[in-house]
Amino acid sequence: MKHKGIICGILAAVCYGTNPFGALPLYEEGVNTSSVLFYRFSMAVLMLAVMLLIERKSFRISGGELKTLGSLGLLFATSSITYYQSFRFMDAGIASTILFVYPVMVAVIMAACFKEKVTASTVTAIILALAGICLLYRGDTGVSLSTTGVFLVMMSSLTYAVYIVVVNQSSIRMSSLKLTFYVLLICMMSLLAYSLTSPDLHLMLPPSPRAWFFACWLGLVPTVLSLVLMTVAVHEVGATPTAIMGALEPLTAVAIGVTLFGESFTLRLAVGIVLILSAVLLIVLGKNFHLRTITHTITSIVKKTWRWKS
Fold first, then answer.
1. pLDDT tops 80 at residue 93
2. Mean pLDDT, range 153-170, rounded to an integer
3. Residue 37 sits in which domain range?
4. What's the mean pLDDT in 223-233?
5. What is the 3-state secondary structure (H, E, C) of the chain?
6. Tens of pLDDT, residues 254-270
7. What global pTM score does this model have?
């Protein structure tokens, strides 16, 4: 695998994982979900437009490129809307956990539709990542899940998986900045249309300079930087490895919660983090990481965890 793609994949996941740093303060100031999403994408479009102008890049696209970009924009908009809507029916932690089924969907789509070989290391990495994500979730036990909520999260996961696959398989050839600009422009327009047709999802202005700062943060770090880096990673190392490296997203969110919002750091979180890092390490090392090494690593983690509990 190419080092550039791996680095971009890791950075993309870390950038995306900073969403809580921008979103939570906006929620605290009373900004509703549709407004948070709208300003996230509109700020990102504005920033990308400025970058393209500074680099004197052409905004011209062909009819064929518009079709692909339109599909990508609608996919990303659908994924964002269904994900945030799921919060109305279930805890955000549960939604984030279920959402991470998208690497499995990417692997299945790539194997079924494009004959991509699914290796033992890929399957193991997915299992490790899923186990780690489950351990990062700290919810109440015995709470029944909303069918509507689960459906919305699964739809979000599926559309995001298809988005990654389309980026990987499309014949479109343009800079990552330009591609992300048009995707987010279409995404923003879709979100605006959705808000205008939903009376309970009206748009509201950020109420303070602090809110404007966090709206800009959402537009730059977890949106512009994350999507541009993710696009580069998908083209360099492929859709499935990039999706698995996305396990660093919730890990970053947990790190922000612990360091900035005073959340407790527990043994369960520690084990979850180790499993996720093991999954990413497995993807980075690829074929050089043998099954015997994988088994030994997992066994060591289990033994250490058991001693700690004892």
1. no
2. 92
3. 3-309
4. 90
5. CCHHHHHHHHHHHHHHCCHHHHHHHHHHCCCCHHHHHHHHHHHHHHHHHHHHHHCCCCCCCCHHHHHHHHHHHHHHHHHHHHHHHHCCCCCHHHHHHHHCCHHHHHHHHHHHHHCCCCCHHHHHHHHHHHHHHHHHCCCCCCCCCCHHHHHHHHHHHHHHHHHHHHHHHCCCCCCHHHHHHHHHHHHHHHHHHHHHHCCCCCCCCCCCHHHHHHHHHHHHHHHHHHHHHHHHHHHHHCHHHHHHHCCHHHHHHHHHHHHHCCCCCCHHHHHHHHHHHHHHHHHHHHHHCCHHHHHHHHHHHHHHHHHHHC
6. 777 778 767 677 788 78
7. 0.77
Q: Which residue has the tokens 């999260």?
A: 153
Distance separating alpha carbons of residues 154 and 146, to the nearest angstrom: 12
Here the tokens at position 262 are 């005073």
Number of structural domains (the chain) is: 1
CA dist., res. 75 & res. 186, Å (int): 10
Q: Which pLDDT belongs to residue 308? A: 45
Q: Distance between CA 244 and CA 100 in Å, rounded? A: 9
pLDDT digits (tens, 9 = 90+) for 137-155: 665 555 566 888 889 989 9
Residue in 6, 46, 29, 11 with CA at minimum distance from that of residue 206: 29
Tokens of 156: 């979000």
User: In sequence order, which residues have a C-beta less than 8 Å from that of residue 151 and are 6 or more positions away?
Assistant: none
Q: Which residue in this structure is represented by tokens 């680099």?
A: 55
Separation between Cα atoms, residue 290 and residue 276, nearest integer Å: 18
The answer to whether residues 121 and 294 touch, using CB atoms and an 8 Å cutoff, is yes
Residues ≥6 apart with Cβ < 8 Å to 21: 214, 217, 256, 260
Q: How far is CA 183 from CA 5, 77, 89, 219, in A?
A: 21, 9, 28, 14
Residue found under tokens 């750091």: 265
User: Percentage of the chain with pLDDT > 70?
Assistant: 85
32 residue type, one letter: N
Amino acid symbol at 149: G
- Mean pLDDT for the chain? 81
